[in-house]
Every structure is written in C-alpha cells, then in structure tokens.
Specification:
Oligomer: single chain
Order of helices and strands: HEHEHEHHE
Strand order of the largest sheet: 3-2-1-4
Number of strands: 4
Radius of gyration: 13 Å
Strand content: 15-25%
Amino acid sequence: MERLTKDARALGVQRVILFGSLVWGNPGLTSDIDLMLIWDTPLGFLERTAEAYRRLQPQVAADLFVYTPDEFRRMAHTPFVRRALAEGRVLHAA
C-alpha cells in the first residue's frame, strides 16, 4: 500500500483513499485493494484509469477508481463516494 501511495503521489494524484473490505474489517480470500484516486488530469476516464494501472503497476489485485477533482465533487453525494469518504482511510491528501 505504501508503494502504491508513493507512486500515486509521484504521478500527481491529489488524494488517495483506501476503502472496502480491507478498511471495513471483513477481508476474505478474494479481497482486493480498493483505492479511490483524485487526479487532476486532462485524460478521459478510461485513459486515466488505464494510465494509473500502467504507472502504479499494482502487485496484488486492486480496483482503482480514478476521478478528476470536478468529477469527485459532482459525485460526492452518491452512496458509493459518501461511504468511501465516511468509512475509508485517506492515505494521501495534497
């Protein structure tokens, strides 16, 4: 997790939030790392997500949810983002 956070910071990601089963205390054999990344980039959604996977190269199963700051603000009211913010753990915030 430390390496992913460090590499995300080097990429220019403004915020890294760990959420999901690893934080909520119920990981299982099929659990993965769930990270929400807030990255101010002109890349489109699919391109930025692919670029994050390419640059971060997770060594374990990981789901990366990569949003621009504007998308993140617009989605702040959704149950998915609200729960990640309320129950997740901020690993990096610029």
